[in-house]
Amino acid sequence: MPIKLKDIKAPVEKEMLLFEKHFRNSMKSSVPLLDKITHYIVKRKGKQMRPLFVFLTAKMFGKISDASYTAASLIELLHTATLVHDDVVDEAYKRRGFFSLNALWKNKIAVLVGDFLLAKGLLLSVENNEFELLRLVANSVKLMSEGELLQIEKARKLDIEEAVYFDIITKKTATLIASCCATGAASAGQPADVVEKARLFGEAVGIAFQIKDDLFDYGFGDDIGKPTGIDIKEKKMTLPLIHALSNSSKKEKSRIINIIKNRSEEPKMVKEVIDFVVQSKGLEYTNKKMYEYRDRALEILRSFEKNEARQSLEDLVIFTTERKK
Length: 325
What we know:
The chain has 325 residues and is an all-alpha fold. The chain has one domain (5-322): Farnesyl Diphosphate Synthase. The chain contains 15 helices and 2 strands. A two-stranded antiparallel ribbon has the order 1-2. It is globular, with a radius of gyration of 20 Å. It starts with a helix and ends with a helix. The mean pLDDT is 86.
């Protein structure tokens, strides 16, 4: 029977509801336009996986405190700020089916709103004297920026090695989940060594999560559906393709890279790249890697004391790797 997100949330359901109010309050402004925009941001929030990691980690260690709410709000504020700025940089007009801020209010306002959210996050932690939480989350935002810039730098050549790929996704994706778990542990009063273990747990989950996204692009697994090839069209070097290229001849590698560089808008050519990856067993290799990181996360998690929250975190790890979208 598949794991349901509502069952995973059960141990912290009350806290998650309280968090929504806490998060709304953290964005309040005396400027009517800002209030209108932040209301729109709250309305289009997704599954709220990041606060869930914070609260479950804190509860696993015995205590959800005011600091846990500050940590979850801080992460959501800073993360939302980066997404708003990303949409401007990428000229993206939709996110998760909703119009982006830059689509509705243009770039200048979107950038200023991103700055406002960033400042609100900094103030929230300073006003509550939560300097360690601020250090953990600010470091994640720094790493995310580095990951994006590293990807842009390497994408020009379309010849990324596996080690560089893992460096990019660790910084771009995994570091945020890592900071959720680290701040959750810190907010529950855990010592530095336990906070670091919680961070490593979150990092492994985050890497597995990103690898799963890589597989979606190829329609891997009977229940996922047709391959979309969006990453190929956008010239993104993901693990299935990197592995396939590393195991191909120099001539074949050159041909595939040339297709991605110059003909990635042609459906027939995208299909050719997908077929190449499938035949090179890039998907099986990537799936194996995803489970390696999932197992690493579970191994770390199971070193902590067993309780209801830890069980929900285990289920959340499984949910991350078995999700259908």
